[in-house]
Amino acid sequence: MKNAIVGQSGGPTPVINASLAGVFQAAKQHGIDKVYGMNHGVMGLLKDDLVDVDQFLDSDLKIELLRRTPSSFLGSCRYKLKPYTEDDSEYKIIFKNLEEHEIGYFFYIGGNDSMDTIAKLASYGAYVHSPIRFIGVPKTIDNDLAITDHCPGYGSAAKYVATVMKEIGRDAACYGTKVVTVVEVMGRNAGWLTAASALARRDDFEGTDLIALPEIPFDLDRFVDKVAELQAKKPAVLVAVSEGIKVADGRYVCELGSSSHASDAFGHKALTGTASYLCSVLQERLGGRGRPIELSVLQRCAGHLTSRTDIEEAEMVGGAAVLAAIAGKTGKTVVLRRISDNPYQVTTDLATCDELANYEKKVPLDWINEDNTDMTQAFLDYATPLIQGELAPFYVNGLPYHLGSFKE
Amino acid sequence: MKNAIVGQSGGPTPVINASLAGVFQAAKQHGIDKVYGMNHGVMGLLKDDLVDVDQFLDSDLKIELLRRTPSSFLGSCRYKLKPYTEDDSEYKIIFKNLEEHEIGYFFYIGGNDSMDTIAKLASYGAYVHSPIRFIGVPKTIDNDLAITDHCPGYGSAAKYVATVMKEIGRDAACYGTKVVTVVEVMGRNAGWLTAASALARRDDFEGTDLIALPEIPFDLDRFVDKVAELQAKKPAVLVAVSEGIKVADGRYVCELGSSSHASDAFGHKALTGTASYLCSVLQERLGGRGRPIELSVLQRCAGHLTSRTDIEEAEMVGGAAVLAAIAGKTGKTVVLRRISDNPYQVTTDLATCDELANYEKKVPLDWINEDNTDMTQAFLDYATPLIQGELAPFYVNGLPYHLGSFKE
């Protein structure tokens, strides 16, 4: 039996390491000799910068710690391979390195950009008749992967967002004074995570009053009117907006307020300042106080507040990837298929990476209410199962303990 | 036995309701007839807007839920009474309302501004020979109250800050690229909470690399040099700064970057944008990426991540306030006295509210290292016991459940 290699790519999630644990455990159980890790994804692989996963996961305790450790344990990257038809030099290096380490199975934990990487590697592998199997393991808090019912990472991020909306809402209401709190949530083109703010409405909390997703062109005047309408009824108004909301002419709302926004390797603009801009507009037009809150990276790294369902599914898709690779599949990614909402049941399946690469799945428009201010019951039915259950960190001397980096 | 009234004032904390639970339970145990709550502190009392605490805490489950519910359950206010020697009209209203409800004991849960309120009411009470006893119950995440060893609310906020520094640090390091993350922590004049970022250094985490407190005049050039020095050794540098850091001429750092900053009823300026300004300077001078993160209100309202030690002490000071009132004390506040660090032992004591009012206790300068970039062991010995233990929320259907507001 050959060796395996596993990498993590793209933005971290609180459960991306549970997928790593899932890959590792299934590999060991199914007789794969050695598991290598890529130090910072394919960037590490290109430099033959690999780590020995067997060595740092040499006890059950460490595997359990890994499951409860947020952010990409192996290190991540945002690196786009050129098509090999244009330039195959990097592919040659990668395959040479893989062959030298007798790799038979390649696992890549990532989002839609990472699926592009797997698709390209599998395609090149077929072209050179390589026996190496390339399988994707889905992760993204954005939940914007096609085909899969939902994506590991989303459940925990959604639970984080809904939880802090309840807490922020309580905080904001405590003075009884007029204040509009605008919470900015990650999601550049798909509003899944912002939509999770709708989960905060429970019998102990009034909920998020107004939700704006990037799926709907943002109308500033209408927004101000809506807030004014809400504030006529209650002093503390709670708003959730996606960082990526755009006005009708296609400009990001955050660009209306400031000037330059840098782009990353995939051409994604850095979006920030949406809440801050909206608060300044609200203060100017309505008076009173606007309080912008950016949830920032905590929504994707809060290992102290995760969904047990999400962690278990993240581990499961890792294991399913190993089974698929051993069965000879390549260029595929594991996806989740929902059998039913209630009782909640899911199973794994496979999809072709090509179908997921570089495509962002949006929130269905009929899951947004007619007013474009809230989510419908269909969304709540979809998302509520994903936030169920907790898996507390191991607290040592008062703080969550994480698996120490292999670099230390 | 007469009735009691209790109010909450100033900024909320995750454990301010544990103090309310402590007051309530001790009052019931010691034969106080009825417990009223002020709706939004003395502002509610002035309008005779009271709530029946007995009614909404009519079961053990509700008391337990209250202990795990963040933000001020009774509603808070920031309201400064004029000295009665200048204008006694509000005092007359307050005492009339108290007498009508047959109040014998007045408890006010708050920080140094609230201690000012208690001192004034007690002083007026003495002047008019009122038998009503006025006792303060300390709370503030800022930990800036004099005399008391530490303040309920601080331990949970410190635990939150240290926890998220670990998580944010892991997130920032995952790409292996150059990035300076500047985390802005609450604290306008006292750096206690920012200092808690030093607790993040453990054997599984390198820790916060650079800490800037308002106790030390901020030197921008030196800061940039220090960051450059750190970044020569490691790509991802983690910085914690107090929102209230000031340059040598007395201007807030956040004022260097922007224009207007509103003030509240106590004349406190709204401080925000410190991290954002510092990141823009770092990017300009050092290149690379700067990522500002404002912990915002979550550091004071994250009921999902509290210190059990803190919750228990918050409850204890509430109970001690009742005992003090029954013993005939007035114009006093409960304080905590530490008997030892290890084993950690504390007891309650009383101090005169005048001594605490309007005074902010700073971090001792010899708890800051010589370089002014980190905390010494003395601080760690002081703060570590305060973050020990957890008290998880009651999770219902995936989210923390809170005691529903009496207004609903």
Secondary-structure map:
The structure is a homodimer of 408-residue chains.
Chain A: E1 3-8, H1 16-29, E2 35-38, H2 41-46, E3 50-52, H3 53-56, H4 60-67, H5 89-100, E4 103-110, H6 112-127, E5 133-138, H7 154-173, E6 179-185, H8 192-195, E7 210-212, H9 220-233, E8 236-242, H10 253-257, H11 274-286, E9 289-294, H12 298-301, H13 308-326, E10 332-341, E11 344-352, H14 353-356, H15 377-383, E12 394-396, E13 399-401
Parallel strand pairs in A: 1-2, 1-4, 4-5, 5-10, 6-8, 6-9, 7-8
Antiparallel strand pairs in A: 2-3, 10-11, 12-13
Helix pairs in contact in A: 1-4, 1-13, 9-11
Summarize the structure.
The structure is a homodimer of 408-residue chains. Helix content of chain A is 37%, strand content 18%.
Can you walk through the features of this model?
The structure is a homodimer of 408-residue chains. The first copy, chain A, is 37% helix and 18% strand. Chain A is an alpha/beta fold and 408 residues long. Chain A has a seven-stranded mixed sheet with strand order 3-2-1-4-5-10-11, sandwiched between helices. In chain A, helix 1 (16-29) packs antiparallel against helix 4 (60-67), helix 1 (16-29) packs across helix 13 and helix 9 crosses helix 11 (274-286). At the A-B interface, helix 7, strand 9, helix 12 and strand 13 of A face helix 7, strand 9, helix 12 and strand 13 of B.
Quaternary arrangement of the chains shown?
Answer: homodimer
Over all CA atoms, what is the radius of gyration of chain A?
Answer: 22 Å
Measure the end-to-end span of chain A: 31 Å
Helix vs. strand class of chain A: alpha/beta
Dominant shape of chain A: elongated
**N-to-C SSE series of chain A?**
EHEHEHHHEHEHEHEHEHHEHHEEHHEE
The average pLDDT value of chain A, as a whole number, equals: 94
Spans of chain A of 5+ residues with little confidence (pLDDT < 50)?
A: none
The tally of beta strands of chain A, per DSSP, is 13
Our estimate of the beta-strand percent of chain A is 15-25%
Helix content of chain A: 25-40%
Largest interface: A-B, 64 and 64 residues
Largest sheet of chain A, in brief, is: 7 strands, mixed
Secondary structure tally, helices of chain A: 15
Please list the strands of the largest sheet of chain A in the order they lie side by side: 3-2-1-4-5-10-11
